[in-house]
Amino acid sequence: MPHKRVLSLWFPRLGAERLIRQNPVLGDTPFAVAEDVGQMQVLSSLSETAAQAGLYRGQPLRDAHAMCAGLITRLRNPHREAAFLGVLHRWAGKYSPWVAREAPDGLIIDLTGCAHLFGGEAALAQLVEQDCTDLGLTVRLGLADTLGAAWALARYADATPTSDRSGDAIDQEARATRSRAGKRRHWERGGASPLAHTPKARTTRICPPGKTHSALAPLPIAALRLSGDTTAQLGRLGLRRIGDLTGQPRAALARRFGTGLVYRLDQAMGSAPEPISPAAPPDRFATRLSLPDPIGLEDDILAALDRMLPRLCELLERKGRGARTLRLEAYRSDQTMAWITVSLARPSHNPDRLRPLLAMKLTDIDAGFGIDVLRLEATAHEPLHERTRVGHLEAGKSVAQKMSNNTGLDDLIGRLGARIGLDAITRVHPASSHIPEKSAQTLAAAWSEPAPDNWPASPVPRPLLLWRPEPVTAPDTPAPPDTFRWRGRQFQTTGRRGPERIAPEWWLDDPDWRSGQRDYWSIYTDQGDHLWLFYAHGATLSGGWFCHGSFA
């Protein structure tokens, strides 16, 4: 069985280079991305030009402007950066099907058994760097037997271990020696000794199989993915390289710094497992059409849709998906963009069902000086399962008829939803409750199935209109009144039917039912009103007569 090989990709300038790809002019000047940290703004990502000017990540923005007067900054958008990392996730699938994100600026690729397809690991690494260069991205890669080792090589292969106690900080020197701290040479203050006149050899980022220990030994302690406090404490003890840790007693390290240090060391060396959890990139269904000349007529956009919709529907059908929401983007010649969004009551990959909905909303697109590019994307999609009709001939015809009728209703809901919104179209379903106002539930028509044909029938007629109980002025007796007053009108009873006793749901505390059990009466009045009155026997609230609804 071949050795497990893991490739770690780190994009140190991801935030800045994402914006430079959109506006290449920013690449010629010092450019940085700033983010809010507490009560100040710091640099989160820099372009190469800004780094050459002496700026660094985490530097306060006011200090950066003081060092570089021509610095251009943009505020960080973490959601856009995460989406861009998702795009790189899909791109990395060309090297291996096992790709995992390492937010916010890294990818992990399991290359076991894949490197020979690209001519070896060195050729693959060169190909990755060339692809990233073509994409306008800076990449640092590390290839090793373990995830921890690959991560360390990608980020710290060229780093030089240094001490955190240089002697320059006020709290690192005694009072008597502070005056002499500035006169000492840097190697006398804890820095590296002046041994070096020999050129620095280039550190390789590809660790040969089985050589993890020797590859990690010269790297700084921070390459073990430790917290800043643990790294600082180890540095004060003179443990600055990973190789300095491997010779120390493990029990003493665990007792002094916790088991997390030992566990990270074992993960990097391969003694402890650290599996890669790849997440398949979400399916994206989109098509794009570039136009030779700008267009602005509705008929021209419809002609373009006739070319784009079949391609999009073919992609959806190939994956067994149906579009729920479509987004049409129109990129104008003045570098602006307009868009429309339509939703369907049922997912579909049929162009004949999608085209009328898009055509209804084309008037919302302002062509401006002309449209150069059109892009159509299924932003929301759901699986569509093939149906196999079984049974005798009559049953098959019945099922086919129901399916054909259902399509027409869904199309109607979709067309109405394009005008007034899908949330405004509702349907009623039966509910399992004996309380009159809870016997039905209202659902969004686009997100629910039709109500069953066998709607449960009530043993007694129910009113057409229901409202919250309203007080009725009548004698406080259970017998139906001969005369009563309601909504400022005087009524004379001409007929009555009842009573029907309904008890409240004792397991729920409904404020409208705190008056106890009710005796409902169907009352005919001399003014032609057919009302639904009830007498509440009283519980936590006082009883009396109330009007709850009206019959047709």
Supply the key terms.
552 residues; alpha+beta; 6-stranded antiparallel sheet; 4-stranded antiparallel sheet; 19 strands; 26% strand; elongated
Question: Strands, helices and their partners?
Answer:
Elements: E1 6-10, H1 14-22, E2 31-37, E3 40-46, H2 48-52, H3 61-67, E4 72-75, H4 78-92, E5 99-102, E6 106-110, H5 121-134, E7 140-144, H6 147-156, H7 178-181, H8 212-216, H9 228-236, H10 242-246, H11 250-257, H12 259-269, E8 285-295, H13 298-318, E9 321-332, E10 337-348, H14 351-360, E11 371-383, H15 393-420, E12 426-430, E13 440-444, E14 465-471, E15 483-486, E16 489-502, E17 518-525, E18 530-536, E19 544-550
Parallel strand pairs: 2-4
Antiparallel strand pairs: 1-6, 1-7, 2-3, 5-6, 8-11, 9-10, 9-11, 12-13, 14-19, 15-16, 16-17, 17-18, 18-19
